[in-house]
């Protein structure tokens, strides 16, 4: 890979894809290729094949996916399994057919079993059952990484899979029904502060533990993998530390400046009790996350206020 390589970022409007584009451009890559959904429907295999035949892509960053938080995953498992299976199958197979040598596939830490020993090592994959609130999504992502492994084995491709922990940062989804916990609580705390509310509702018991990675750190890890010629394998990407949802809510309230009380809504699911990644595989190669949680939440909050909360359409950030 060099600075002139043609790098296709699939899903460039999403949180991960847009962070990848920012990072590539900042690092001096001059041929970053993107397509909107209207220009190229990744669910249409014939269209994806035509795109790869025409564009002479050198590297694919496969960040296009149907993603969402615990409620969206649990209530729309059909969409999550079908769309992710189709997108990854279409893109990975078309890339192989067009002799694209390098590809990075992005999954999620929810691919690992619910009752995994912690921190979670890559080799715990498929050692016991999945967390039911997101097993459809997890199965699709496991299929994607297995596709990469199988193609590497049979066709000598160099396809790598990165499994980030819970992500946050610019261009996140702030819709309360489909978002993940961090953007949801950021928005709730902001609105509670503006409305002078006394309380903020947190779903579940507040005891599950989660690990949060700023998406710019994921983009940095991706460039690290590409520039250091990591050719295959599965790599966890995280910070190596977690905290409880209660602690996360407290940290967000502090950053936002909301000093009301937290109320826990036990009718909402907790999901998996803990998912802390073991990040030593990438660390041994020389990569570590650098953005601290409070610092990352503060910059994300500034971006939220500028991009969403102040705009006329912000009343309904969908
Ligand atoms: P998960 O990591 O796949 O379980 O996905 P989420 O980020 O959606 O949820 C993580 C944890 O945060 C779960 O235990 C949720 O119940 C909890 N949580 C607390 N408040 C919220 C909220 O307002 N939205 C979401 N999505 N999760 C919340």
Q: How many β-strands, per DSSP? A: 13
Largest sheet composition:
6 strands, parallel
Bound small molecules, by name, code or SMILES, are: guanosine-5'-diphosphate
CATH class identity of the domain at 7-172 and 211-241 and 275-291: Alpha Beta
CATH topology of the domain at 7-172 and 211-241 and 275-291: Rossmann fold
What is Rg?
A: 19 Å
What level of helicity do the residues show?
40-55%
Poorly predicted ranges (pLDDT <50, ≥5 residues)? 312-318
Q: What is the strand arrangement across the widest sheet? A: 2-1-3-4-5-10
Average the pLDDT over all residues and give the rounded result: 95
Strand composition percent: 15-25%
The arrangement of helices and strands along the chain is EHEHEHHEHEEHEEEHEEHEEHH
CATH superfamily of the domain at 7-172 and 211-241 and 275-291, by name, is NAD(P)-binding Rossmann-like Domain
Q: In the CATH hierarchy, what is the architecture of the domain at 7-172 and 211-241 and 275-291 at level 2?
A: 3-Layer(aba) Sandwich
C-alpha termini separation: 37 Å
Helices and strands, with pairings:
Layout (H helix, E strand, L loop, with lengths): L6 E4 L4 H12 L5 E2 L11 H11 L3 E4 L7 H6 L1 H21 L4 E5 L28 H21 L2 E7 L1 E3 L12 H15 L3 E5 L5 E2 L1 E3 H13 L5 E5 L5 E2 H12 L4 E5 L8 E2 L4 H6 L7 H17 L9
Parallel strand pairs: 1-2, 1-3, 3-4, 4-5, 5-10, 6-9, 7-12, 8-13
Antiparallel strand pairs: 8-11
Helix pairs in contact: 1-7, 2-4, 4-5, 6-8, 8-10
The structure holds guanosine-5'-diphosphate.
Catalytic activity: GDP-beta-L-fucose + NADP(+) = GDP-4-dehydro-alpha-D-rhamnose + NADPH + H(+)
Protein name: GDP-L-fucose synthase
Organism: Paraburkholderia graminis (strain ATCC 700544 / DSM 17151 / LMG 18924 / NCIMB 13744 / C4D1M)
């Amino acid at each position: 890979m060099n600075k002139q390589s043609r790098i296709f970022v699939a899903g460039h409007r999403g949180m991960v894809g847009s962070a990848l584009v920012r990072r590539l451009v900042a690092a001096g890559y001059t041929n970053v290729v993107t397509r909107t959904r209207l220009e190229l429907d990744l669910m249409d295999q014939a269209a994806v094949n035509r795109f790869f035949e025409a564009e002479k892509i050198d590297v694919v960053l496969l960040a296009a996916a149907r993603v969402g938080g615990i409620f969206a995953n649990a209530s729309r498992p059909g969409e999550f399994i079908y769309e992710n299976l189709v997108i990854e199958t279409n893109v990975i197979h078309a890339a192989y057919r067009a002799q694209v040598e390098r590809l990075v596939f992005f999954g999620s830490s929810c691919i690992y079993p619910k009752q995994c020993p912690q921190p979670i090592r890559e080799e715990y994959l498929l050692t016991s059952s999945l967390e039911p609130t997101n097993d459809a999504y997890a199965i699709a992502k496991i299929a994607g990484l297995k596709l990469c492994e199988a193609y590497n084995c049979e066709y000598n491709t160099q396809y790598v899979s990165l499994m980030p922990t819970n992500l946050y940062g610019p261009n996140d989804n702030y819709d309360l029904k489909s978002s993940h916990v961090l953007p949801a609580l950021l928005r709730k705390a902001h609105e509670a502060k503006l409305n002078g509310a006394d309380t903020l509702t947190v779903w579940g018991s507040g005891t599950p533990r989660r690990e949060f990675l700023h998406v710019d750190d994921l983009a940095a890890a991706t460039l690290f993998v590409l520039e250091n010629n990591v050719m295959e394998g599965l790599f966890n990407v995280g910070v190596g530390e977690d905290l409880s949802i209660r602690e996360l809510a407290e940290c967000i309230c502090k950053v936002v400046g909301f000093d009301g009380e937290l109320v826990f809504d036990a009718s909402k699911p907790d999901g998996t009790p803990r998912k802390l990644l073991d990040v030593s595989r990438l660390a041994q190669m020389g990569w570590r996350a650098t953005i601290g949680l409070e610092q990352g939440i503060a910059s994300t909050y500034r971006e939220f206020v500028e991009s969403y909360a102040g705009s006329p359409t912000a009343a309904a950030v969908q």
